[in-house]
Write a structure and sequence with these properties.
By secondary structure, this protein is an alpha/beta fold. It contains 7 helices and 11 strands. The strands form 2 sheets. The chain has a 7-stranded mixed sheet with strand order 6-7-8-3-9-10-11, sandwiched between helices. Strands 2-1-4-5 form a 4-stranded antiparallel sheet, with helices on one face. Helix 3 packs across helix 4, helix 4 packs across helix 5 and helix 5 runs parallel beside helix 6.
C-alpha cells in the first residue's frame, strides 16, 4: 500500500514541486500518473524512490515511513521496488543475461538462484532466446523489455515505470503496456508515469492527473473516484 497525506515538496529555491498531495494506492493496483511537463510527476516518483524527502506531510510505502526513513535503510527499502526508465539504462558491455543478473548480484543473491531465475524472467518478457545478445543488437522495444526484466529480477512488490514507451514506436508501446498489465495480474502494484494520452485512454485503468503539484483528477476506468 502506498499512501501520501498532504505531501509537499518545496526546493531550496522556493519552487513548489508538490503542493499538498493526498493519494492512496492499494496493493495490486495498476495506476497511470499523468500531467504536463513540470506538473510534479517526476518529483512524486523521486519521493517514492526515496531519492528525495518530502518537505512536509506523510508518505508511507507498505511498512516504510519515507519521511523518517534513515539513509542506511534506503537500500533495503528499494528492494521492494522495480524501476523502468525511459532511457532503458542498460549496460552496453553486458549481455541481456548479465544485465538482468546484475540486479540480483548487487543484493547478494546466490549464483545458483540467479542461473534459474534470469532465464525464467526473460521468458516472461519474451526474450528467452536473447540471453547472449548485447543491447546494441536489440530493437528499442527489446531493450525496454530487458529493462523490465531487470526491474522484476528481485521479485519486487511495486513496479514504477517512468515514461516506459517514450523511446519506442507505437506497436512496441502496446507490447510493453501489455507486459506491464500481465505483471500487474501476477499481483504486483504497477505505477506508470506517462504523458501519452492515447495509451491511457486505450487501457481504461485508474488515472491520477497532477497539475501544478496537486492531484486534480482521479478516475478509475473512466469513472471519477
Amino acid at each position: 500500500m502506498i499512501e501520501l497525506q498532504n505531501v509537499k515538496k518545496i526546493y531550496p529555491n522556493k519552487t513548489v514541486a508538490l503542493g499538498g498531495v493526498t493519494l492512496r494506492i492499494e496493493d495490486g493496483e495498476f495506476v497511470f500518473v499523468v500531467g504536463h511537463s513540470g506538473a510534479g510527476k517526476t518529483t512524486l516518483m523521486r519521493l517514492l524512490l526515496r531519492e528525495e524527502k518530502p518537505t512536509s506531510g506523510k508518505l508511507m510505502v507498505n511498512e516504510f515511513d519515507l519521511t523518517k526513513l534513515p539513509n542506511y535503510k534506503v537500500a533495503h527499502y528499494r528492494r521492494q521496488l522495480g524501476v523502468v526508465f525511459q532511457d532503458f539504462r542498460l549496460f552496453p558491455n553486458k549481455t541481456v543475461y548479465e544485465n538482468v543478473a546484475f540486479a540480483m548480484h548487487v543484493v547478494g543473491t546466490p549464483t545458483s538462484k540467479i542461473r534459474k531465475r534470469v532465464p525464467a524472467i526473460l521468458n516472461t518478457v519474451g526474450l528467452g532466446d536473447k540471453l547472449k545478445c548485447y543491447p546494441n543488437e536489440l530493437s528499442g522495444g527489446e531493450q525496454q523489455r530487458v529493462a523490465l526484466a531487470r526491474a522484476l529480477a528481485n521479485n519486487p512488490k511495486i513496479i514504477i515505470a517512468d515514461e516506459p514507451t517514450g523511446n519506442i514506436d507505437p506497436e512496441m508501446s502496446i507490447e510493453i503496456m501489455n507486459l506491464l498489465l500481465k505483471i500487474n495480474r501476477l499481483g504486483k502494484t504497477v505505477i506508470v508515469v506517462t504523458h501519452e494520452k492515447s495509451l491511457v485512454d486505450y487501457y481504461q485503468q485508474r488515472v491520477v492527473t497532477i497539475e501544478h503539484g496537486r492531484v486534480v483528477e482521479d478516475k478509475v476506468g473512466g469513472m471519477f473516484e
